[in-house]
What we know:
Blueprint: H1 3-10, H2 13-21, H3 24-31, H4 36-47, H5 51-72
Amino acid sequence: MTLEVQYKINSDINNIRFLRENPRWYKQLNRNPEKFREFIMDMRDKYELKPTDKLNKLLGNITMLQSFIDVLK
């Protein structure tokens, strides 16, 4: 694995955790460091860190808040 990829992985705790949970990425990143972008996308999919996931969580919280307000009326 190149030093650049190692620095990128160590810069975010989610990257480190995902790499430990999915050791197949060690081999893939060792053989082909250009797959780092694919690694990041896989990590974001698993941990739901994409902007659409965050928006869905926000909308879910708003819906829950509205239902609490409706119950209190």
